[in-house]
Each structure stands twice: as C-alpha cells, then as structure tokens.
Amino acid sequence: MIKLSHIEKTYEGSSGPVMALKGIDLEIKRGEIYGIIGLSGAGKSTLIRCINMLEKPTAGKVIVDGQDLTAMNDSQLRAARKNIGMIFQHFNLLSSATVYENIAFPLKLGGCSKEAIEKKVQPLLQLVGLNDKQHQYPAQLSGGQKQRVGIARALASDPKVLLCDEATSALDPQTTKAILELIKDINQKLQLTVVVITHEMQVIKEICDKVAVIEHGVIAEKGTVLEVFTNPQQPITKEFISVLISNELPSAFRGAEIYPTAVPGSHLLVRLTFIGDSADDPVIAGLIRGFDIEVSILFGNLDHIKLTPYGRMIIGISGEQPEIDKALEYLKSRDLRIEVIGYVTRHGHIAD
Amino acid sequence: MSQDMVTLLIKSLGETIYMVTVSMVIASVIGIPLGVLLVTTAKNQILECIGFNRVLASVVNAVRSVPFIILMVAIIPVTRLIVGTSIGTMAAMVPLTIAAIPFIGRQVETSLKEVDAGVVEAAMAMGATPMQIIWNVLLPEAISGIIAQLTTVVIGLVGSSAMAGAIGGGGLGDLAIRYGYQRFRADVMLATVIVLIILVQVVQFAGNYVAKRLNKK
User: Fold this and answer.
1) Which of A102, A231, A259, A275 has a CB 3.0–4.6 Å from the CB of A343, allowing a cystine?
2) How many domains does chain B have?
3) What residues does CATH 3.30.70.260 cover in chain A?
4) What are the start and end residues of each CATH 3.40.50.300 domain in chain A?
C-alpha cells in the first residue's frame, strides 16, 4: 500500500544543511497498522509528512496505492492527497467552523453538493460518537472530542490510508485509550491502512501490527511488534520498551551481588518470557513435579501486545546443583524464552 | 450655538462619515488582498515568492512612512487626475484611501499570521488549493482579528480625515479649523471635539462587538 524507497530529506539550516532523513526504506501492507516510534528530533514527523508529500523528500520514492507521489505535479498531488487522511497532535481543526462544518470541510473542498455532504457527514458523526455535538465549535470540546472530529474529518474523503501524527500525545491516558480503540476499530471496519507516529511505546503496543524504530534519521530496527517487543536488538529499542516492561530485578534483589556460580545459601534467578500460546503451558508445575528443587515466584506479570498474551516472570530456584542444571535443561526445552540472571543470596550476602 | 451651527455640525459629521466610509471600502478592497499577499508569498507559505514579497513590503513601508499631511499635499497631482479637483470632500478621499491601503495591508497581515499553521497544513493534507486555503481557512479563521484591526484603521481614518480639513477637505476637521480656530468660536471647537469622541466610541464599540461575535475561540 505504501512503499518508501530510500527517502532522504535535507533542510537548509542556519549552520549548513541538516539531514533529517538518511535513506529510509519502508513497506506497509494494506490493512496494516504500522507504528513508527522515535524520540523528538529523530525525523519521524518529517517521515510521515513525506508519505503525503507535505514535506518533499530530497531523494527517494514515495509510492502510495501504486502511485508514485514523487513524480507528480501539484494538481495531481492534490488529487492523490484525497486518498490519504491525516490526523494531528494538536487536532488542527478550523476554530471558526462547527463540528459538522469541520467534518464537511474536505468534501466542500472537493465540490460536493450540500445533500451529498449531509449524507456523508451524519454517519461519520455516528462513527465517532459526536452526533449531539455537531453544532458546537471546537473550543467547546474536550481534547478527545476534538481528535474524534479530526478522525471523522480525515475519513470524510474515503481515504485508503490514515496518517496519525502523534495523535494521542496531547491527550490524557484514558482518552488516549479510547482514541486508540477508535483507530483500531476503523482499521478493521474500513480495512484502512494506518501509519502511526509516536514517542510512546504504549501506543505501539496497543494497536500496531508492525513497528519501525527511528533514530537520527535512519531506521534502527523494524519488524512485527511482537518480535521487536520480545527480542529488541538496538539500545534505543530497549530503552523504549523498558518504559513498559522493566528489566530491573525485583526490589529485594536490587543492589545485591549476583554470582555466576552457586554460593552457600544462594538460589538461581531465571527470567521467563511467555508469548502467545506458551502462556498456557504449565511450566512451573512441571518444574516442581519433575525435579527435586524449590521454586519461588519473585515477580510476574501478564500483558497483551495487541491481542497476543505476553507474560514475564522471574523465578528463584534452589536445591542441589545437578537438579538445578536439569531444571534449566527442562526450561530450555519448553516453548519460551529464558534468561539466566545468576545466583543471589536471599539477603544480598553469603550465608554463614 | 445657533440652529445654523447645529445644521453645519451635522452636515460636517455626514461628510466625515462619508469620506471615511468610502475611503475605507475602497482601501479594504485593495488592502485586504494586499495583506493576504504579504502573508502568503512569504517564506514557507502557500504562495511563496520571496522577491515579490520583499518588493511589496518595501512599497508598503514607503507609503506608511510618509506623514499623512505631507502625503496629502504631495499627491495633489494624482488627486487632480482622479477626481478632477484638489479641494473638497472628494479630493480628500484620494489621500485617505492611499494612506489606508498599506495600513490595512499590515493589519490584515498581522491577523493572518496568527492563524494556526497546523490548520493550513491540515487543509494542504486534504488537497486544498492555495485559493481554497485563503478563502476557506485563512480569512474565516482570521476574520475576528481582521475586524478588530480594521476598527483601528477606521479610527485612524477619522483622525486623518480631520487633518484633511487643513486643505479644505470638508468634514468635522474643516469645521473645527474654519469656525473653531480661525473665527475663535470655542463652542464650535468643543462641539466638534465631542462629536468626534462620540464617533470614535461608537466605531470602537461596534468593531469590538462584531469581532467578539465572530470569535469562536
């Protein structure tokens, strides 16, 4: 649906040219929700604006729905943009127009008749749940309601692609959730391809199928959200994920010395990660029944990445060394990811 | 004050209103598009044309830097060419209009600059043409501010029109100079000043009211 090949963008800064995008390749399939995450200044806003050519790339090709936008003249481009809806962090609604007029705006630009506009706008008001607000002005709405207007407006011209530029960054957590639900809903109902720009991993986790992590104008890492979440490669990715999933040890062990081999009174800490169906596997029961060891659960949580269950647990294993080794072999044979942290003593020091 | 004086006062007020209204209308017809051009042809704007923008800005500054009383005298040949005379109400309207155009241009520019760039960007993302952006985004979004700014221009014009009295332009200024000043009629002078004060108050009040009604922010 969207194909970006080797996109470069250079700005003329006051101290010489600044390269905001340094060769971005990205392919987004029809019906996908694709997340692009990066810190501010990473180039993600520039990148999303290249998709509808609000920013013209210095080099590279932008192909949306089979059309090469980079090869178009201004009027062809304006026609092509009607296929690409966009919503913004600060909503960018016309303050002088009512909710109804705002949603009708792209249709009015397209020269639709009053009746055609009415026919189109009413279902959209319904879709975003703002029927009772249609005659109000944006200033009278809450942030979440404003973004709903933005979404309805973006959908008015029946686009095939929806670009979301930090669409939830100005909203509180509850409203963010509701707006993300709405975007997910629209994606499914209308088979819309959605591109989401954000600096919040929560947003990616909530709705995206795939993610690209962008840093200093290049894509540091990309893949399915599940892959990237459970097995991040780059430091920047790990940092984003750590906001949601702490890799730190439980507080009782923080600061404690970790030994590579067993010491008296110590037990072995192991981090287990369950993804999808493996979350149903009774691993702990298997450990206790199969081996002469003691297992204590020190930390655990279960979460979802979009719809896939995703669990993490830290367990402590104590017992005779051969049994511990066998237990580890058992864990490795199961369909889950394990990480051996090391041996710690219960109170942080070696027992006498 | 005699009945004649009151009649004269009313006639002068009528002339002032007439001069200001006509000049304002003509100047707005030219000045508002001028303001739009000043904004839209600037760097990174929808009709970017930096060279043109610089020339336009210089011309505006040049006209604005000439004091009205000098402008009035300096363009007498032009006035004569347009209205056939250099004295009277008609003649006063030419310099009033010429002085008001760049003033309006700058004021409109200020209002348009306050329009959120994000809204313009949103319209571009929807495939709006530059003309559609001007008509459907910039002007409606700025209308309240433009009205407030134009109110200031009208009040400025009332002041300038009084100055036109100095060259026999008619209106309240003319009355004040001929009767109040040259014939030492303090009562006429006072009456003129009071009428001017009331006129300005009414204009300001009306402008504020309309601007407020149009402001949906």
Assistant:
1) A259
2) 1
3) 267-344
4) 2-242
Task: Tell me which CATH homologous superfamily contains domain A2-242.
Answer: P-loop containing nucleotide triphosphate hydrolases (3.40.50.300)
Identify the CATH assignment for A267-344 out of 3.30.750.24, 3.30.70.260, 3.40.50.1820, 3.40.140.10: 3.30.70.260
Chains A, B: CB pairs < 8 Å: 71
> Which ipTM was obtained for this model?
0.87
- Bridge partners (DSSP) listed for residue A340: A270
Residues from chain A that touch B128, judged by Cβ atoms under 8 A, are 78, 109
Best of A94, A137, A146, A160 to disrupt the B interface by mutation (most B CBs within 10 Å)?
A94
CATH number at residue B176: 1.10.3720.10
**CA-to-CA distance for A47 and A73, rounded, in angstroms?**
20
Pairing, β A266-275 against β A161-165: unpaired
Q: Do A105 and B123 touch (CB under 8 A)?
A: yes
B127, B128, B140: residue with CB nearest A96: B140
Optimal mutation site among A50, A64, A91, A109, interface B, most CBs of chain B within 10 A:
A109
- The residue type found at A66 is G
Q: Radius of gyration of chain B from Cα atoms?
A: 20
Identity at A141, one-letter amino acid code: L
Q: Give the domain range for residue B154.
A: 3-214
Q: Distance between CA A319 and CA B146 in Å, rounded? A: 82
- Smallest CA-to-CA distance from A196 within A170, A165, A234, A238 is with A165
Task: Name the β-bridge partners of A197.
Answer: A36, A165
Q: Are strands A210-215 and A33-37 parallel, antiparallel or unpaired?
A: parallel
Overall residue count recorded for chain B in this entry? 217
User: Tens-of-pLDDT digits for all 352 residues of chain A?
Assistant: 999 999 999 988 888 888 999 999 999 999 999 999 999 888 899 999 999 999 999 999 999 999 999 999 999 999 999 999 999 999 999 999 999 999 999 999 999 999 999 999 999 999 999 999 999 999 999 999 999 999 999 999 999 999 999 999 999 999 999 999 999 999 999 999 999 999 998 899 889 999 999 999 999 999 999 888 888 889 898 888 887 776 667 777 777 788 888 888 888 888 888 887 776 778 888 888 888 898 888 888 888 887 788 888 888 898 888 888 888 888 888 888 888 888 888 665 554 4
